[in-house]
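Researcher: I'm preparing a figure for a lab meeting and need a structural model of a single chain. I don't have an experimental structure, so a prediction will have to do for now. The sequence is pasted below. Please return the structure as tokens so I can convert it later.
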Amino acid sequence: MKLKLKNPFKGKKAYLWLIGVGVVGCFVFINLSNHAIEYTSSNEYCMSCHIHPHAEQSWKLSTHYNNSAGVIVNCVECHLPPKGHGHIAAKAKHGFKDVYGKLFKDSADFNWEDKSKLEQAKGFVYKESCLKCHQNLFPTTLSTEGDDAHLYYLTSKQDLRCINCHLNVGHYDPDAKHEHNMNFGKLAAANEEIYEAATPVTSFNNFTEKLPGTSVSFKMVAIPGGEFAMGSPKNEPLRDKDEGPVHQVKVSDFWMAEVEVTWEAYLAFFKATSSQGRKEATVDDEVDGISGPTPPWGAPDQGWGKGERPAITMSWHAANTYCRWLSSVTGKKYRLPTEAEWEYAARGGTNTPYPFEGSPKDYSSRGFMNKIFGPDTININSYVNYELNSDGKTKEPIEVKANPFGLKNMHGNVAEFCLDFYSPNAYQEYQGKVADNPGGPAKGREHVVRGGSLKSDAKDVRSAARDYTKKKAWLMTDPQMPKSIWWYSDVIEIGFRVVCETDDLIAQ
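Model: Understood. Here is the structure written out token by token.
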């Protein structure tokens, strides 16, 4: 007779057993998961993978570590959103990228300085995390400018993030401090020759202008007048609609600066005309036409250096005032170039997308195949400082070749102001006729910007490419009321170059 053993895993007991195992398993899984999340969220774990050479040092110098309260803000408290705001999803996304980079990339090839800029930081710092800790935006210790800035933030949440103004608080960078820079431009004068008078000009040739009372000089190139086809044809690769229709334009002789206005030249103007105590006003309120800039916010040169690098972040108004000041101290007629003069000079007698050989399709990094295999950059890199070779900063003009007229960096480095108001339909007015020294629309809100910059794709450094000022967007984080008429707080790739008229200098 066989004994039948009872199966303990049948019936209700089996279900209870399975439920018990499931509960224990879930508990173990959740517990291990929490431990894993906590472990991989520690500063030590973050720094074992993120080997930015200055990350830990700059963090310990910042107000998120080095503060009077002794509070330490840890990596994940800024670089992940808080729980309930997609914390796990963001952790998984960033974690996958970090592991991939650790295994397959060489950190020595990373441009860490560029990665610390606002555009990159926006992808790794979360506004929700800032507001979780900083819930009171109007503490009693906040300055008047801070009150104004936070009030503006509350009305512009779609456009602004906390790090627009507070990029410096997590990783200390003296060049990213958002504060009134009262010492800007106060450099000790070099022991150099001081020019007593401007350069006399009696013939239409290249000359070197000298600024009286300074050691500053710069080369002006004689651009012979002529007629050219302005704009881009419909079959030009990567063109925009506002570049047409193509129309004939005639320009007279003029001089144009070989390079963009340098910090050396701009600071001569700043030192001669700036006022530490003068409050901001509107353009219409300005009485003295040669009143210069008030002190800027932050470091306009971004810590890249001054000297021969192009001056940046000044407003169109400031650039235009510089030209008036330059005219007053030299006795010549300096101004910003018209858009027609700018394109004529940039082309240098060519009618192709660039004044050198090559197609925008080959040079652009935006195309599908170029993203995979990389664009052909050998030729364009010799002439243009742009997105792919700039390392995220301006460069001195010695690093590029000149165009056929002998001008440098017309197609990159910094975008350049023109005299004209911007209109996307400006060229339609000139169809079917030769426009004689056109000056653009009679009125408008924004001004033309030409030439592309250190941030531009090859598409946007073509001779015909057009852009325009964006005053509201470029002044978002200026806390002053009214906002500065001299400095843009939110654009680092804008500058200008000057032209000089031949009238009254050369016998006609």
